Known about the structure:
It contains 16 helices and 21 strands. The protein is an alpha/beta fold. The termini are far apart. This is methylmalonate-semialdehyde dehydrogenase (CoA acylating).
Amino acid sequence: HHFRPATSLADVQYPASHERIESPVDTQNFLDNKFVASKATTWLDLHDPATNNLVTRVPQSTDEELVAAVDSAEKAFKSWRDTSLLHRQQLMFKFTHLIRENWDRLAASITLEQGKTFADARGDVLRGLQVAETACGITTQMTGEVLEVAKDMETRSYREPLGVVAAICPFNFPAMIPLWCIPIATITGNTMVLKPSERDPGACMILAELAEKAGYPAGVINIVHGSAKTVDFMLDEPRIKALSFVGSNKAGEYIYARGSANGKRVQANLGAKNHAAVLPDCNKNHALNAISGAAFGAAGQRCMALSTLVMIGETKEWIPELAERAKGLSMNGGFEEGADLGPVISPQSKKRIEDIIASAEEEGATILLDGRGQKPEKYPNGNWIGPTIITNVKPHMKCYKEEIFGPVLVCLNVETFDEAIELINANEYGNGTSIFTRSGATAGRFQREVEAGQVGINVPIPVPLPMFSFTGNKKSVAGGGANTFYGKSGIYFYTQQKTVTSLWRSEDAVATKASVNMPT
Ligand code: NAD
C-alpha cells in the first residue's frame, strides 16, 4: 500500500462502497483550524470491518503535536470566552446546518470505518446533531440565579467555562459521542482537545472541517490521535481542566481515577449489560420485534444494546419465535440495500465474542441460534458473526457476567416479576433496562424498584433525548454518575459556578470600628 499524505480533508472523499481504496490517505491532526500531517513514527492501520481492506492509517500523535494542541486551545480560550453567547449561538446554528448538509458524507465514513449499516450510521449522526441543536438554546439554559439576601445586599450566581477541556471517544458511535461533547463544551465558552477512537476517526475529522467552515476560530476545537499514550498525556497535562470519556470499564475506571487524582473533573460513561424483562401480558409482536432490533442492531455494539433477556413465566416459550425473527435479519456490508446488521469492529473482537459463545456452551447453556461461521457471500473477509441466541443461561456464566458487545442475546428464565427485579438489580451494571407489559401498575413497580439508570417501558433502547441527560448508573458510570452527559448536567459539567455578593448602601457608614465577628 502507498499511503498519501492528505493536503486537506476535501482530499479525503469516502466512497459509499466497500471497494478497495487504491492509495489510502493518512489521517491528520487538526490543529489551530488546519489539517496537519503528523510526524508520527507509530501508525495504526485502520481496516474496513466488512472487508479488512485498508482505509487509512491513524497516527500516534507525537508529544510535540499533543502539546501544540493544548497550546492552541489555551491561546484560543482567552478570546473565545469573551465572545458573546449570541455569537457562539450563531456559530452553532451554522454548525448544525452544515452537519445536516453533510449528513450522508458523515454516515458514509462511519459505515466504512465502523461497519454499521448506512441507515444506522445516519441515526448515529442524527443523535449527535440533536445535542448540537439543543445546545442552540444555551441562552436560556445557562442562566444563573439572583437573590436579595438582605437590605441593599444581593448574591448572584454565574456559570463560567473551565478553560481547556478534553474528550476521549469510543469506536461505536463515531459521530454521536464527539457531538455529546463538542457543542456543549464550546458553546459554554471552553476550548477543546478531542481524541476520537483510533479505529474510526473519520467522522470526527469531517466534524472538525465543518466547525471550521461554520466560523469557529482557530484553537477552539483541536483533534489529536492515538491510543493510551495520548490519553495519558491528557490525564497528566495540568492545563486540561476536564475530561469526558466514553468507553469500556477497563479504560474508563483508570481514566477516572488518574484524572480525578490530578484534580480534573471527569465524566465517564462505561460498559453495560442491559436486561429486558418480558411479561406474559405484553404485546408479544411488538416485544419480539423490539428485542430483536435492540439486541442485533449495530451488531450489538451499542452500550444500550439489549443483550440480556429475562423471560418471565410462560414467555420462555416465545424464544423460538424470537429466533425466527433474528434469522430473518440480513447481515451484510453496511452499504448494501436492506442490510440489517454489519460486521463487528475487528478480527480480535470477533474472536473474543466467539470465545464467549464457546464458553457458554462449555458451561452448559444452549446455543439456540449460532451465528458463528456465518458470512455474507460478497464479503468473505469481514469480521462476521450472525445473530446468536443463548438460552438456559445462569447468572454465574461468563456470557452473563461479561459485556459481550456483539450480536449475542443471552436468555434467562424466571418464574415471577419479583425474581426478575432481583436478578436485574443484582447485576453490577446499571446503564439501561426495559420492561414489556400492558399493565401500568406492573410498569410502575418496575420503574420504581429497578436500579438501572435508564428505564424503557415497551421501549427497547430508552436513551433520553438531549433535553434530558444520559443517566446510566452503578458500574456503567464512573464516580457515581454525578457528571452525566448532555442535558442540564452536561452544561453543569462544562461550567463552574461563581457567586458574587454585593452591598450597595446609599447612606455613609457611621461606625468607626471594624466588625470582626461572623454576623449573627
Ligand atoms: P475502549 O475503552 O477500548 O476505548 C475508548 C477510548 O479509550 C478510545 O479512545 C481508546 O483509545 C481509549 N483507550 C483504550 N484503552 C485505553 C487504555 N488502556 N488507557 C487509556 N485509554 C485507552 O472502548 P471501545 O471499545 O472503543 O468502546 C466500547 C465500550 O464503550 C463498551 O464497553 C461500551 O459499553 C462503552 N460505551 C459506553 C457508552 C455509554 O454511554 N455508557 C456509550 C458508548 C460506548
